[in-house]
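Human:
Care to share another protein and its fold?

Assistant:
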Amino acid sequence: MTMNHPGHYGGPQPDPRTLMDAGANPTWFGRIDPGNYRPAPGNPSAMPAQPWLPALPAPQRRGGSGLLALLITGGVLAFASLLMVVPFLLGNTGVAGFAIGFIASLLPLSAVLLTVYFIDRWEPEPKRLLVFAFTWGAAVSIAGTLLIQPLFALAAPRSSEADFRFFMATVEAPIVEEFTKSLGLLLLLLVARKYFDGPVDGVVFAFTIAGGFAFTENILYFGREIAESTDPGTDLVRIFILRGIMSPFAHAIFTGTTGLIMGFAARKWHSGYSVLAFFVGLLPAMFLHNRWNSMGADFLVQYVLVQVPIFLVAVVGIILLRVAESKLTRQRLLEYARAGWFSPVEVDMLATARGRRQAVRWARGLGREDAMRRFVKAATALACTRQRILSGRDVYQHQADELRQLADVPALRAAVTA
């Protein structure tokens, strides 16, 4: 595709600071260094007379050999981990306890995964990476915990059984579990950085990993009540209320803080920043985990006065992230609109939840709902591509992606309006 527009990357470039669009830094969520700013490539063709809704297929995003290696390695590690984890669970729960614990654990898991779906709707992550994240949490991080745990047991106080258990719950569990869970986040950030480029992505991957970890851990706790209790029905209900109703998001919030911090670091890609963010992000996760496991006789008081407010702060934070993501998408698409690729009406449609719902209803009436959904996803991906460019991340690769995505817009728009 040939473009002679002054914004084309192949042509002469004026000082980006003098061309930076007003509002190019719409929120704290997507701020960019003015020195990285580049005008959007111009559209060499005139906009159609009726610029409505093209059926844009989702662009093919190149994962690369590194991503394939990550998925293969994750699969191998998950399989090997299950060879350790499943016998451990069965040995502690028995077959009946395992089966009942498995079924009961699906309920809190569903709450976490539905939350992930809500957070991830704006720019969905590849399902294969979400599967990697879940299996890492449910199998690999559990196996890692089982391997490291004995080392902490050697250092635990032996003065009494109570002291030993308190040490393992408040020192070993926060350190080891958050470390093994967050290793999956670090791998995703280093290897799949094209898909892990902001705080929302960090929260999505962290919640998915934590949901997997909590799922397996709940099988152990629920199943063990069946296997060891003299009143298994009553004790199962008690622990299900505690873990399945009162705290299904505990692990998600712990690890979510690590994912959030790593997501902010991902905005300015650098492998050193990623590793630093990993260790910095572990600190609040371990602290929150420690505080949760330290609650004792005054559990209900601390739960109401401390844990519930933390949960509410997390909810507000997620909502703010979603709002900021919408504003960022709008700003980047407005830059494409100024370059002639979209009309303002299309930007309003693509960058707001209300506009998207209206567009889908409109397309449904024409029998083109699937095409519309693909277009919305692709436009969002295009906005994210531009954000990566302006953030200075793998600029040349993302510029090539951008031109390929833009090249599809006119023909696909004509296809839907014909």
Residues 1-18, 49-63 have pLDDT under 50 and may be disordered. DSSP finds 13 helices and no strands in the chain.
